[in-house]
Each structure stands twice: as structure tokens, then as C-alpha cells.
């Protein structure tokens, strides 16, 4: 939620500052009419009226074809209108007139070229910027990263990974935007976010949308028509970026601007009781803070929450953090995943797999194809992760890839995209190539009930690795007496069930060969 808006505001600030720098020195034009139009265009830029600014600047450069500042501002106006190709043309015209006039313009060209996947242009412009701008700082760091991304992308384009995405059917995808899929371990429950029109009279207007959760259930091999989860979770505001528990009966999600929050965006929790979702509650501190917390991912045992935050103490931008339940069932100390995962830039959309070891996430701070790429890392211990691996092209492109999940078996991945063939942003699935897969996980699903009355029993289910005597899982069944536990394959387990006033029950199961 909100990623594209964040990127736009950051870039807008750079433009306003750069425009001020252009005014701080004598202008390259001596044409009074051209200068007057240029100053009007600056005012329109500050008012975010980029189309009006463009019109004024076209008049300006017709009056003075060597007005360098006007060409730069016109290029920036096009960038702000998401017209990177045209923006690059005018920025380059300015720098061809005076290559050393303003080094940062080369950086703007490099960034825009990377956004459209023009790696040769991006590389050349980044080199020009670095040759002229010797002062260490954020822009130089970003330009160095652009060079690394261009080198990576050139290689990745020559060695594409297997990728055959299949658009999910009309029971899931509609003319509206669908994204951020979440899947239960048994692949029977699919929850996702859909953008809906606030005003039905303008159903496709991009400014007339709000987010709600939708849910679909598998019927044999097909997904049923998704339905709105409704109140009390869905409201007239935005809810999104959710994660569900392995049984699909608990959900953590992001809500921004809700009453009772600690900051602008917080993480909230709800669960099903008697097959109905209860009113959401704020997860509270220390997970939430006065900063932004969003995009949660709950571990398969329900004990660790991964999420994104821009709170202090990170490595820059949005980082991925984790927090685990203590012995009393309270959220303990919040920990940053560290510099192996997080960068001085942005990390987004963590997804901890059902194996509880493999983490998929998006980042624009590691070498990749351009924007937010998807990476995979594996947990070494509680404080250390393997070096992230880019999932490669064409899974990753020069655009932003976020909201990536993988089923329990590790064979199928789900993601959202506005690629050709979509009706807006749609949810896709594809077979994940072997090198990017997590450990294979299966699940044990059951129900504890009274043999005489048939009523559910409040029981605890314990699973023990027979060969190591390690307690793999200890969980309490739901109010309906049901439980679902993820288990590594190729092992043998003891299943122990205990309940007050009932005889102890134990059974061995073998997953060897599965």
C-alpha cells in the first residue's frame, strides 16, 4: 500500500529543490519573454500542475532554443507525468548543450532510463554523473547502484529463468485491480486485496478507489467466486497488504488512518470465531509505533511477525523487521533483519514461507532489473540470513514486482501484475523453478471431538520428531476443535493430543518418502 505514492513524493521534492538551484544562478537565456514564461512554469511545477508547466515550457524553448534550464524543467515535468521517454529526450538536449551544466541532471536521466528498462542509456548517464559529481552522498550512492543494476540486468537478460505465468480466472480477477494474494497451507483459502470504486458512477477512475479484502475457497480444483469479506474488517477506508495464518482463520493486515492507531499506518489483527470475523484489534506496541508499519507476514507457527517499517534504527528507507511472541504470548523485542537483507533504500512485501526458513521479499536496494525486484533468502539462525538471491528475469523486470507468495509445497508462486493481457492489475500463478524453491512442506490437518457427543474438545496437539525427540509444534485447537500444522517432509512424528478430563491420545505418523 502506498509504495508508488512514496516514490512520487520523494522525486517531487528533488525536482522542487533542483528548480531552486536553477534560479540561484544567472539563467542561460537573455530573452525576457522566455524568462517570464519559464518563471510561470516554475510556479505551475510547485503547484503540481505539470501539464500546464509543460505547455508553458514548450512556448519557452520556441522563443529560445538554447535555454538550458527550460529544457531541464520540461524534462522534469514529463517525468512527473510518468512520461519517462519524453522526459529523457529533453533532459538530454539540455546536457548536450552543456554537459557539465548541472551534474544531477545526468542522474535524473539515469533513473528515468532505468525505469523504462533502457539499461545502456541508464549506464551511460550514471557514468556521466559519477564523473562530474565527486561529493559523497545519497545521489552518488544511488548512481553507483544504478550501475550495478545495469550490469546485473544485462547478464539476466541473456540468461532468463523459466517463467510461464497464468492469469487466474474471472472468479478472482475482474475489471478492477486485484493484488496481494495470501494462501492457506492446504491451498483451500485465498485472500486478496481488491480496489473498488467509491462512486459507482465513475467505476474506473483512479482517484475513485478504496481497498477491501476478498476471499475465495477452492472447490475441487477450481476457485469459487471471490466475495467481499465485509464488516467488521472492511470499511469505507483502505485495508490491504494482508497475511493469513496457515489455516486461513487469522489475519494480520495494514490499515492507514484508523482510529486507535499509533501512527499513519498500523498492523491490525482479526480472527474467525464461530465462522465469523471478529472486529479487528490493533496489534499494539512494540510492533506498531508512531512511524509506518505495514505489509505483515506471519510465520507458520504463528509466533513471529515479519513486517515493514520506516522507524528509526534501520538501514534507510523502509526495512523488514521481525517480532516474536514471548512465553506469555506477548510481542517481544522488535528486531531488524540486518544489512544482509536491508539496504539504505527500500525493502517491501516480506513473505515467510511455510517452511519457516525461506523469506521472499522485494527491494530496490540490491542489484536487480530496475525497480522493486523479488529476492529470496534463507534463515541461518535467529540473527543471520543468507545473501539474498534475485529471482531473475523475466520474473523480475524494470518495473516494480511486489506481493509474491509461494504455496506450501514450494512448487507454485502467486503474484500480481499489470502485464499485457491483464484487466488492470491481476493475480497470476506460475510454476516456480527449482533453484528458487523453499523446502518442501506438507501439513497435518485434523479435528478433536468427543467420541460420544461429537462436540469439539478444547485440546492441545503436540508433534514430536521421533528421531530427535524435538517438539516440532505445540498448538491449541480452534473453538471448532480443528487444527492445521505445517511439517517438513521425510520425517516421522509422534502426535500427542491432551485435554482436561479426557484420556491422553497418541499416534505415530510417517512422512518418509512424501
Features:
Serine Threonine Protein Phosphatase 5, Tetratricopeptide repeat; five-stranded antiparallel sheet; Immunoglobulin-like; 3 domains; alpha+beta; Neuraminidase; 514 residues; 8 helices; disordered N terminus
Give your account of this protein's structure.
The chain has 8 helices and 29 strands. The chain is an alpha+beta fold. It has 3 domains: 3-158, Serine Threonine Protein Phosphatase 5, Tetratricopeptide repeat, CATH 1.25.40.10; 166-436, TolB, C-terminal domain (Neuraminidase); 441-510, Immunoglobulin-like, CATH 2.60.40. Strands 2, 3, 4, 5 and 6 form a 5-stranded antiparallel sheet that branches. Strands 7, 8, 9, 10 and 11 form a 5-stranded antiparallel sheet that branches. Strands 16, 17, 18, 19 and 20 form a 5-stranded antiparallel sheet that branches. The longest helix is centred in the first third of the chain and has 21 residues, at 3-23. Residues 1-23 have low confidence and may be disordered.
Write the layout of secondary structure elements.
Blueprint: H1 3-23, H2 32-46, H3 50-63, H4 68-80, H5 84-97, H6 103-115, H7 119-132, H8 138-158, E1 166-167, E2 178-183, E3 189-197, E4 209-219, E5 222-223, E6 227-228, E7 239-244, E8 250-256, E9 265-273, E10 276-277, E11 281-282, E12 293-298, E13 304-309, E14 319-325, E15 331-336, E16 347-352, E17 358-363, E18 373-381, E19 384-385, E20 389-390, E21 405-406, E22 412-417, E23 426-431, E24 441-447, E25 460-465, E26 471-476, E27 482-488, E28 492-498, E29 505-510
Antiparallel strand pairs: 1-23, 2-3, 3-4, 4-5, 4-6, 7-8, 8-9, 9-10, 9-11, 12-13, 13-14, 14-15, 16-17, 17-18, 18-19, 18-20, 21-22, 22-23, 24-27, 25-26, 25-28, 28-29
Helix pairs in contact: 1-4, 2-3, 3-4, 4-5, 5-6, 6-7, 6-8, 7-8
Amino acid at each position: 500500500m502506498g509504495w508508488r505514492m512514496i516514490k512520487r513524493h520523494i522525486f517531487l521534492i528533488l525536482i522542487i529543490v533542483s528548480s531552486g538551484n536553477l534560479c540561484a544562478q544567472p539563467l542561460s537565456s537573455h530573452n525576457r519573454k522566455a524568462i517570464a514564461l519559464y518563471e510561470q512554469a516554475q510556479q505551475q511545477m510547485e503547484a503540481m500542475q505539470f501539464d500546464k508547466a509543460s505547455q508553458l515550457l514548450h512556448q519557452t524553448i520556441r522563443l529560445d532554443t538554447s535555454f538550458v534550464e527550460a529544457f531541464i524543467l520540461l524534462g522534469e515535468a514529463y517525468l512527473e507525468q510518468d512520461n519517462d521517454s519524453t522526459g529523457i529526450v529533453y533532459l538530454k538536449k539540455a546536457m548536450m548543450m552543456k554537459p557539465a551544466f548541472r551534474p544531477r541532471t545526468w542522474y535524473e536521466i539515469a533513473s528515468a532510463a532505468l525505469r523504462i528498462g533502457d539499461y545502456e542509456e541508464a549506464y551511460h548517464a550514471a557514468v556521466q554523473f559519477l564523473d562530474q559529481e565527486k561529493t559523497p552522498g545519497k545521489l552518488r550512492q544511488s548512481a553507483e547502484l544504478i550501475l550495478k543494476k545495469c550490469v546485473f540486468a544485462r547478464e539476466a537478460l541473456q540468461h532468463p529463468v523459466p517463467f510461464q505465468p497464468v492469469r487466474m480466472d474471472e472468479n478472482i480477477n475482474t475489471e478492477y485491480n486485484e493484488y496481494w494474494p495470501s494462501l492457506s497451507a492446504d491451498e483451500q483459502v485465498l485472500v486478496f486485496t481488491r480496489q473498488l470504486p467509491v462512486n459507482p458512477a465513475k467505476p474506473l477512475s483512479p482517484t475513485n478507489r478504496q481497498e477491501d479484502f476478498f476471499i475465495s475457497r477452492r472447490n475441487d480444483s477450481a476457485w469459487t467466486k471471490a466475495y467481499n469479506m465485509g464488516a467488521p474488517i472492511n470499511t469505507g477506508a483502505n485495508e490491504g497488504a494482508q497475511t493469513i495464518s496457515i489455516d486461513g482463520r487469522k489475519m494480520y493486515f495494514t490499515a492507514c488512518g484508523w482510529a486507535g492507531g499509533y501512527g499513519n499506518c498500523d498492523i491490525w489483527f482479526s480472527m474467525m470465531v464461530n465462522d465469523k470475523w471478529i472486529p479487528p484489534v490493533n496489534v499494539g506496541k512494540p510492533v506498531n509505533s508512531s512511524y509506518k508499519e505495514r505489509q505483515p507476514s506471519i510465520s507458520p507457527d504463528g509466533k513471529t511477525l515479519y513486517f515493514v517499517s520506516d522507524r528509526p534504527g534501520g538501514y534507510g528507507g523502509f526495512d523488514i523487521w521481525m517480532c516474536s511472541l514471548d512465553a506469555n504470548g506477548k510481542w517481544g523485542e522488535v528486531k531488524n533483519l540486518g544489512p544482509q537483507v536491508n539496504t539504505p533504500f527500500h525493502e517491501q512485501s516480506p513473505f515467510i514461507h511455510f517452511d519457516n526458513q525461506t523469506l521472499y521479499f522485494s527491494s530496490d536496494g540490491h542489484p536487480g532489473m530496475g525497480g522493486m525486484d523479488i529476492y529470496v533468502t534463507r534463515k541461518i539462525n535467529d540473527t543471520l540470513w543468507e545473501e539474498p538471491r534475485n529471482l531473475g528475469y523475466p520474473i523480475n523486470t524494470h518495473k516494480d514486482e511486489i506481493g509474491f507468495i509461494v504455496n506450501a509445497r514450494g512448487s507454485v508462486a502467486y503474484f500480481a501484475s499489470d502485464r499485457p493481457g491483464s484487466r488492470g492489475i491481476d493475480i497470476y500463478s506460475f510454476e516456480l523453478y527449482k533453484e528458487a524453491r523453499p523446502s518442501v512442506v506438507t501439513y497435518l490437518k485434523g479435528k478433536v471431538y468427543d467420541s460420544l457427543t461429537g462436540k469439539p474438545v478444547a485440546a492441545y496437539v503436540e508433534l514430536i520428531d521421533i528421531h530427535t525427540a524435538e517438539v516440532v509444534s505445540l498448538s491449541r485447537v480452534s473453538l471448532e476443535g480443528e487444527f492445521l500444522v505445517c511439517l517438513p517432509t521425510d520425517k516421522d512424528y509422534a502426535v500427542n493430543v491432551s485435554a482436561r478430563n479426557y484420556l491422553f491420545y497418541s499416534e505415530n505418523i510417517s512422512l518418509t518418502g512424501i
